[in-house]
Specification:
- This protein folds into two domains: about 100 residues, no CATH class; about 140 residues, Lysozyme (Orthogonal Bundle), CATH 1.10.530.10.
- The chain is built from eleven helices and no strands.
- The protein is globular, with a radius of gyration of 23 Å.
- The N and C termini lie far apart (about 55 Å).
Length: about 260
């Protein structure tokens, strides 16, 4: 029981930290299985598989496995899935920095083919760089990369209008009251919320007028520090404007760095 309590605490720490620590978690998970021995029972194949679900059988299996074991397995699977996504993202960065004519070492653990990927060179992303620079001439490439990198993360590379598993909408995945304000703003101004024009117009509106999340004097005084790194600027913009429930900051920073490293911007 003591080890189980420590493992649950480790799970909570992993959730809070949100970094690439699956190997540590896997070791702890395997050690847990050894110590538990025969108390961890693999689920049996439901007798009603392929026909009408047998609720009683399913409930009995869940009870036999145990809620703690199920929670551990689900968290372990989620971490492995996120790690795979981070590996794929890092591979894209390696590909871009190496040049198309220079071969790089392939990663056997990646199932997706990236040779023709243009995730970080889309019309939508390029328009953000151009239009934000026009709207705010004093913004540097580092600041623009931090902003666009955050938007890229939120919208899955400017491909998702609606948040997966949530209610966020638009390139910044505006939620709660800001979701309603976004829809009201686009309707009032005759804009389609699914278009670039809809998201861009509302972004500028908020940056100029939202005294909580916009470009306030206090925020811009800190944001304009030329000594700040891409990482610091990305964190600052996310905390000021987006305030995500699960920031996944390393992913945002990777996106921002990718844009900053583009020589054509």
């Amino acid at each position: 029981m003591l080890f189980r309590g420590l493992l649950i605490l480790l799970s909570l720490l992993l959730i809070l930290k949100g970094t690439d620590m699956s190997s540590m978690y896997e070791q702890a998970y395997n050690q847990y299985l050894k110590m538990e021995g025969s108390s961890f029972v693999s689920p049996e194949k439901p007798k009603s598989l392929g026909g009408r679900p047998d609720v009683k059988v399913a409930d009995a299996q869940i009870s036999k496995i145990g809620a703690t074991n199920i929670a551990i397995y689900e968290r372990f699977s989620a971490i492995r899935k996120e790690n795979k996504r981070l590996k794929e993202q890092n591979f894209l960065k390696m590909k871009a920095s190496s040049g198309k004519d220079q071969p790089i070492n392939t990663r056997p653990d990646l199932e997706k083919e990236f040779s023709e990927s243009d995730e970080y060179n889309t019309e939508r992303a390029n328009r953000y760089f151009k239009d934000l620079k026009s709207e705010f001439p004093n913004l540097t490439k580092k600041q623009l990369s931090a902003i666009v990198g955050n938007l890229h993360h939120e919208s899955r590379g400017f491909t998702a209008f609606k948040e997966t598993g949530g209610r966020g909408l638009g390139d910044a995945q505006w939620t709660a009251t800001r979701r309603k304000e976004f829809l009201d703003f686009t309707k009032k101004n005759g804009l389609d919320p699914k278009t670039y024009e809809g998201s861009y117009a509302f972004l500028i509106h908020e940056l100029k007028n939202n005294r909580t999340h916009g470009f306030t004097e206090d925020f811009m005084e800190k944001f304009n520090n030329q000594d700040l790194s891409i990482s610091q600027l990305t964190k600052m913009f996310e905390r000021q404007y987006l305030v995500a429930g699960e920031p996944k900051m390393q992913s945002r920073i990777a996106d921002a760095n990718f844009y900053f490293n583009r020589e054509d911007l």
